[in-house]
Every structure is written in structure tokens, then in C-alpha cells.
Hints:
The protein is mostly helical. The chain is built from eleven helices and three strands; from the N terminus they run H-E-H-H-E-H-H-H-E-H-H-H-H-H.
Amino acid sequence: MDQVCNESAPSEFIFLAFSKLNECRFLLTGFLLITYLFTLMGNVLIIILVCLQPNLQTPMYFFLSNLSLLDICQTTTTIPEIIVHLISGTNAISYERCMMQLFFFILFIGTEPLLLAAMAYDRYVAICNPLRYNVVMNYKLCAQLVSASWFTSSLNATIHTLFTLRLPLCGINKINYFFCDIPPLLAISCGDISGNIIAMLAASPVMGIGPGMCVLLSYIHIILRVLKMHSSSGMRKAFSTCASHLTVVLLFYGSSMFQYVRPFSSYSLSKDSKIALLNNILSPLLNPLIYTLRNNDVKEALQKRMMKKILSLKR
């Protein structure tokens, strides 16, 4: 049976989710294009500021620049392809291109919780052990944490993609989704998907639960430490350094839990495709806004760059 299924694997997939958007196709295209451009501008701006401003070349902003790079990669994996489908009206993607999109989507979406955990550890050391901060959070450790995040997620993406490549599809090529992801591909499989389920269950402690617990424990220690402070100004400063990161963490885990942690009876590919599309837009778009609007260092760096630009133009 597996042999028959593999021989009749489709050469392309058809995204059925687009066929239901004929009336608002151009409206959605404009919305996605605008949000994608704003996402690129916001995250590129943060990367440039971190590279150019000496006061931002610290572990905290090193992690932030990597998060911005991740957000750019994540949205670029799916949104341009969706825009092309909406404009052209062709809702097909080749099998090979679909598997590539799947790999990179899993890679980028899986790296984010690991990076957020590294950023939480950075804030923990900064507030709970400030005298040793520069010693503990040296460049080597920061580079190792970032490299480990990307490597672990690459391994996870490779495993899931290989398991997906083995899925017997029996020529079925219509998926009720906007892009290639694991759930819609499992839904059209005509064979045993237990290996894919086991792979997802095995990955969840490393890619989701583990990083989430690291963030939670870090902030429990941070809150306990801050509550022991006698100075109200010290408390405000400590909380302000964590506010942006904590907001991003809540946004990421809140949207992830809304998408995945629900009763099984409430799952629907039609609804979940829209939630997945919204989640793929929301976090990368809001992350740079959160860090620029709530972070004094970033705002000051942005003002300095703008002043330099204005002065150079006047000359």
C-alpha cells in the first residue's frame, strides 16, 4: 500500500483556502503587502541600530537583533508566496517548493521560543546577579546560546520534514490552508501518521515546554529579587528592562496556546489556517514596535541617528 501511495504522490499542492477569498482577494493582498513592508522596515531598523549604535552593542540587544532577523525570515517564508497566489489567482505550489517552505517555516517558528528563553536568562543575570553580568553574559556565551537555538531548531525542522516526506499521499493534493504546514499535510495523508505524531510529541518538551519553563523560572526569580529591593526607582528600572521582552513572550505564547492548546473537537483546518496566518503576521509586526515604543535605549538611539541624518542633510 505504501509503495502505491508513494508512486502516486502529487507533483503539486492546491491551497483551497484561497478559493474562498475571491470577494476580498485584493483587499487581503493590500493588507498583507503593507504589513509585510512594515515588518521588514521595523525589524531591519532594529538590526541597523544595534549594529551602528555603541550603547546598543550589549547581550540584550544582540539577542534582540537576532530576534528581528528571525522575524524577517519567518514572514518572508510565507507572506510573499501568499501575496503571489492572491495576485496571480494560481493557488498551486510544487511538491518540492512546499517541502522547502515547510522546512524553513518549522525552522524559524521553532527558533523563536529558544531565543526568547535565552533573552529571559539574560534578564535574569542582569537583575539577579548584576555584579557578574559582564562576566557571565560574555560574547562567547551569547554566541553559543544563539547558535544552539538555530542548530536545535534546524535539527527539529529536518526531522519533521523527513517524516513529512515519507507521508503516503495517494495523489491527494488539495489542502485547506494558506501555506505548507504539518497539520494540513497530515490531514490529507492516506496512511499511518503515527511517526509524525510521535515526532511532534517528542519535540514539544525541547521546542515549547522547556523554553517556556526557562522563561517562567527566570521571571519568578526576577520578580522575587525586585520585590526585595528597597528603592522604588530601582524597582521601576528593573521592571522597565524586562517589560518589552515580557510583552513579546506573552504575545508569542498567548497566540501559540490559542492556536494549539484547545479541545480536539474545536480544531478545524479552515479556522486554523486563518489563525496561523494571523499569528505569522502579528508577532513579527508587533515585536519591533514593542521594543521601540517601550525601550528608552532604542528610542534614544533612533533619535540620535535621525539627528545625525538631519544634520548631514543640512550640511
